Amino acid sequence: MKVEDQKVHLCNCNMNRRHFLQKTSLGLGMFALGALFNPASLFSKGRSTDNLKTETPHHIPKAKRVIFLFQSGGPSQHDLFDYKPFLNRRDGDELPDSVRGGQRLTGMSSFQNSFPLVGSRWSFNQHGESGAWVSELLPHTAAISDDLCFVKSVYTESINHDPAITFFQTGSESPGLPSMGSWMSYGLGSDNEDLPAFTVLISRGSGRPEDQPLFSRLWGNGFLPSLHQGVQLRAGKDPVLYLNDPEGLNRMSRRNMISALKKLNQFHLSEFENSEITSHIQQYELAYNMQTSVPEVTDLSDEPESVFELYGEEARKPGTYAANCLMARRLAERDVRFIQLYHMGWDQHDNIPRQLPQQCKDVDQASAALITDLKQRGLLDDTLVIWGGEFGRTAYCQGPFTEHTFGRDHHPRCFTMWFAGGGIKNGISYGKTDEFGYNVVENPVHVHDVQATIMHLLGIDHKRLTYKSQGRNFRLTDVHGEVIHDILA
Fold first, then answer.
1. Across all residues in the chain, what is the average pLDDT?
2. How many Cα atoms sit within 13 Å of 442 on the Cβ side?
């Protein structure tokens, strides 16, 4: 048998149903179907069918990278940013039915017969030239308020944690779709060949240490090529699992193995034309480079004492929120595209007076330090920093309401986030809620609007960055989303 015949025979033997359908999808049946709709479109030039290639950016970007400080659990906007003196005056009064408007409740407060309003137990003051209202719980954040844009009218679809976080990260309440960072990696690629375009850092808060769990699918690639999944950097000896070589394998041997694997993968690619094979080739090369780059970026020993004074003593402890904020700055310096921090512990249902101050202490100094540090290094102008959770907390009390303790349930109708750098107007507050802090009354901002704005600042038209899967085009914002032009510089 000739060599060419052997290749054909081997290809036929290895072909499964999926490969068969891929190979024959442009056969006579496809030509006939195309002729019924638009014969000319069969031969027109459109976007490349290679899903590893994109045609972005769509316009000149204002930001090169994103640092998303995600506060998992839902921070209480009434006690942090959305100052409501009326709520304090009505403390203990019943929430009017006309304000609630028949909103569905969680299983944790649906049994309540009474919904007493509860004002904040902490004082608010105006800060900076912008006069932003910030709680005494966040003094460091208050000090940089002129660098921030507070959006007080964000709202979402979900009332429970998992679908709400999934919705924020993937644009859908149902799991399985690509995460926001994966979309950015797919659309824009990486500016650093030695580090992944999308990294994830997780910390556990002291406000409620046993808080809602986080699932790795929140930074998954979904149906996008696996190269675009988020890479978690962990605290401890091995920041990335299974990255180190086993004992007895030297650097040259690893390089030779990677080269041999590349040849094998390229051979299979020539036979099957599967884009996931290309993704595997790139992942092996990236992992090889990360063996050097990851230990370097995660080693904080080269940071001067002044940096630890800025971020706080907790920055010396790997895995804390402060250490992760410092790590985020180091990753931003190395042009990592999307840096996702998750800080758990904001789900205060029953004892806000005790839990919330501890949680705020975790994040206040480090969040402000990150903005200050980026600004001093000239990185803030092209780095978009976002702070916020999946929803807010209720204006009424959940559970027992006493002089010393109270809780707040989940509230999707309105909550506050802040943005900084990367093309955002600084020193402004946008959006408004009613005097109860229950409903948005001015400039509502949906989660899809937030996603569309993030993509716009990175140079992406959220309606044009799509990926075809299972017969339809998907995008992060589904069929929704408007860019919030009023907050853009």
1. 88
2. 11
Structure tokens at 243: 């990255």
Give the C-alpha separation, 85 to 100, whole Å. 19
| Strands 383-388 and 472-474, bridge-based pairing | unpaired
Q: Which residue has the higher pLDDT, 42 or 437?
A: 437
**What is the mean pLDDT of the segment spanning 221-234?**
94
Q: What are phi and psi of 429, to 5 degrees?
A: -120, 135
Confirm if 124 and 133 have CB atoms less than 8 A apart.
yes
Give the whole-angstrom CA distance, residue 235 versus residue 322: 12
Instruction: Judge if the upstream peptide bond of residue 57 is cis by omega within 30 degrees of 0.
Output: yes
pLDDT value, residue 159: 95
Give the per-residue pLDDT at 445: 98
Furthest-apart CA pair in the chain: how many Å?
A: 91
Q: State pLDDT tens for residues 16-47.
A: 555 555 555 545 454 444 444 433 333 333 33
pLDDT mean over 293-302: 92
Predicted local distance difference test score (pLDDT) of residue 4 = 53
What is the three-class DSSP state of 233? coil
* CA nearest to 147, candidates 428, 416, 452, 480: 428
Mean pLDDT of all residues in 322-333:
98
**Count of positions (residues) in the chain:** 489
Do the Cβ atoms of 404 and 433 come closer than 8 Å?
no
Q: What is the pLDDT of residue 321?
A: 98
| Cβ neighbours of residue 16 closer than 8 Å, sequence gap 6 or more | none
- Residue 173, classed as helix, strand or coil, is coil
User: Residue 138 carries which side chain, given as an amino acid letter?
Assistant: L
Give 29-95 as a DSSP string. Answer: HHHHHHHHH-GGGGG---S-S-TT-----SS--S-SEEEEEEETT---GGGTT---HHHHHTTTSBP
CA-based torsion, 169, 170, 172, 175: positive or negative: negative
Residue 483 makes CB contacts below 8 A (sequence gap 6+) with 449, 452, 453, 456, 462
Whole-Å CA distances, 320 to 87, 93, 194, 312, 328? 34, 40, 25, 11, 12
Q: Please, are residues 454 and 386 in contact by the beta-carbon 8 Å criterion?
A: yes
Task: Go through 414-443 and write b for each residue having 16 or more CB atoms within 10 A of its CB, e for each that does not.
Answer: bbbbbbbbbbbebebbbbebbebbbbbeee
Q: Please give the average per-residue pLDDT across 73-82, as a whole number.
A: 98
Handedness of CA 337, 181, 202, 380 (dihedral sign): positive
Q: At a CB cut-off of 8 Å and minimum separation 6, what does 388 contact?
A: 69, 70, 71, 75, 154, 415, 416, 417, 418
Dump pLDDT digits (tens) for 163-212.
999 999 999 999 999 999 999 999 999 999 899 999 999 999 998 888 78
